[in-house]
Design brief:
This protein is an alpha/beta fold. Helices cover about 40% and strands about 20% of the residues. The protein is built from 13 helices and 15 strands. Bound molecules: magnesium ion.
Length: about 400
């Protein structure tokens, strides 16, 4: 039985600021709570389930903030979990729906912490509870921030490829200067990294239909790996039209996919080739597996998104989901590279084996998520602490 839940908001080791067409990604000044990750510990029957998620608003299309996550867990979801079994994951998710709609990042951190607790209670890695280990070695992709100077995009791309062996890049697109600038940015990065690196594009809904059709024509000549959410999230017919025009270049939904119902609507409209699963966006592992089933039925592949900035726990959750899915059902590579101590270290796990090697990472093998945080570091980096009991 769950008898206590602790909530921590923790500091990051470095501020991260990135730009994309529809907003910005900013972890905020060091001492500010807004923009920082939320860690939960779920205590039940001698085990402690642990998970961490960084909510990405303000400035992003997923609405959760640090404070909204803490409030949802402290006031609503947390008290309703007290006295329940860590294994009753479906009823926990049904409770989330019934008690407080939305709030996917708050749900995700609880869903993943429950899964971590189950793994620890059984002495098994999380992937063993959700399908087993299909892919222990996970290919990684690197999401390249937009920049006014394409040289900045080239430098980030080169660093990913040369320093970390990354073979899949995702370029942020829909530059405010127009589609010609996007084509130029793509061309410049392509020339810098060579033809063997897959380059996909993500305009974050910032293209018009005309832009999207122009991009397909121009970028295909330079080797276009995939197109992520080119237009508005609800325009399924528009996406289907782009998919036909793309003629073999996969089209992926990101902003258009929050729920299993969204997955079904996208499948029914034959709108996309791939669905972007971000655990903080869809509410954790439980909904991810349901979306995966819809995708399988509709011959749609999955992509594992979410940057997991400076969080080994958040990256590990993505890794277990990825590892538990057969390779044939995944497209591209996993995006949680920033949780693998690449740009700045996780302040709670600065020393770790869960790191990038030749563009890949091995899924952790320990019980649950297989990531152990340093309790002294947690204490030192805690900006806010709450208890639910
Ligand atoms: Mg995206």
């Amino acid at each position: 039985m769950i008898d206590r839940i602790e909530i921590f908001v923790t500091a990051l080791s470095a501020r991260v600021q990135r730009i994309f067409s529809s907003g910005s990604y900013d972890t905020g000044p060091a001492e500010r709570v807004l923009g920082k990750p939320v860690l939960v510990k779920i205590y039940a029957d001698g085990v402690v389930g642990c998970a961490q998620i960084r909510p990405i608003s303000p400035g992003h299309f997923v609405a959760d903030t640090t404070q909204s996550m803490v409030a949802a867990i402290k006031e609503v979801y947390g008290p309703a979990l007290i006295g329940k079994s860590i294994f009753d994951i479906e009823s926990a998710n049904a409770m989330f729906d019934a008690r407080l709609a939305g709030n996917p990042a708050a749900r995700a951190v609880l869903d993943i912490a429950l899964r971590d607790a189950m793994g620890k209670a059984l002495g098994r890695p999380l992937y063993d509870l959700i399908g087993g280990c299909c892919q222990p070695r996970i290919p990684l992709e690197w999401s390249v921030s937009m920049a006014d100077d394409v040289g900045t995009m080239v430098a980030e791309s080169k660093r990913a490829v040369d320093e970390f062996g990354i073979r899949v890049l995702c370029l942020k697109m829909a530059d405010r200067r127009g589609i010609r600038q996007d084509v130029l940015n793509f061309e410049t990065v392509r020339r810098a990294v060579g033809d063997d690196v897959m380059i996909g594009v993500d305009p974050n809904t910032g293209w018009s239909m005309a832009d999207a059709l122009t991009a397909i024509r121009e970028l295909k000549k330079m080797g276009l790996g995939y197109i992520e959410q080119p237009i508005a999230r609800r325009d399924l017919k528009g996406l289907a039209e782009i998919r036909r025009a793309a003629d073999g270049v996969p089209v992926m939904a990101d902003e258009g996919l929050f729920t299993v119902q969204d997955a079904y609507a996208l499948a029914e409209a034959r709108a996309v080739d791939a669905l972007c699963i971000k655990l903080y966006k869809i509410g954790g592992i439980t909904p991810a597996k349901k979306i995966a089933a819809v995708a399988e039925a509709a011959n749609i592949q999955l992509n594992c998104g979410g940057l997991a900035i400076q969080s080994q726990l958040e990256a590990a959750a993505g890794a277990h989901f990825y590892a538990s899915t057969p390779a044939s059902r995944m497209m591209g590579a996993a995006e949680f590279v920033f949780g693998l101590n690449t740009t700045a270290k996780d302040p709670l796990c600065p020393e770790s084996d869960f790191v990038v090697r030749d563009g890949h990472v091995e899924v952790p093998r320990g019980p649950g998520l297989g990531v152990t945080i340093d309790e002294a570091a947690l204490k030192k980096n805690t900006l806010l602490h709450e208890n639910v009991s």
